Amino acid sequence: MKQVINKNIPIFSLIFTFVLFVSYGLPSHLIEAEARGFRRGSTRGSHRQINRSGRQGARQINRGGRQFDRGSRQNNRQGDRDSRQFDRGSRQENRQGNFDNRQENRQENINNRQENRQENINNRQDFRNDRWNDVSDWRDQRWDYWNDWNDWANTRYWVGVGASLLAIPATAIAVSAANQNYYYNEGVYMQPQGDSYVVVSAPVGAVISTLPDGYIPVSVNNLNYYYYGGAFYQTSSGGYIVVQAPMGAIVPFIPDGYETKVMGGTTYYQYGGVRYQPVYDEGNLVYKVV
Known about the structure:
The chain has one helix and 15 strands, in the order αβββββββββββββββ. The chain is α+β, with helices and mostly antiparallel strands. β8 and β9 (231-236) form a beta hairpin. The longest helix is centred in the N-terminal third of the chain and has 154 residues, at 2-155.
């Protein structure tokens, strides 16, 4: 009996220890675990609540920002609309102003052109009157020159083209034209041929310092010429130069020594290589270069 009790003592001790653990140790562990769970739950809940509040505040701020942005865009759109409306009004005013200016300029240009036309008409009329007066004066002067030349020809011996001279006047001067040498004296040109001198037509290009007495002024196509003894002159740097006879020039006479030719029933006069046609000007016989 004693031996049996001793063998069961360790088992009893284990059971007793287990009971004590269950009675006292296990509840404390459970309480601690529950406390830890509570703490974890409370902390997580607080954190979640804080996070929710933060997110809610952020969303509220974002909504406020978006609302502000919408208001700003609305204000900007309104401002843009107002600016466009103002620009349209300004462009309309500018177009109207430009239209008015163009209308004024057109009217002013019309008036200016009308004034210019009237002024040109008046100037042309004055010009025609002046030219007619000039022509009338020239006609009167032309016959005066003709009479002067006749008077001069009556007092001086005129030598026609082709005449041969044994000697030249002491007052003759040497001139040249086209590499040819000539002698000139009072409107007459002479060229040496052997022991004599032959009177020739005025060589084109010859220059003399003064015109001979009795020259006649002639105007052709608004160009001024001087006619004497079948020769036409124009002013030059050295005095007066012999030029080609201008077509259409009208002269009151032809020097002696001319030739008569009939062509197509019309009589022409040839002198110094120039052909003249006799015409009448206010009843006066004149000669036209053709």
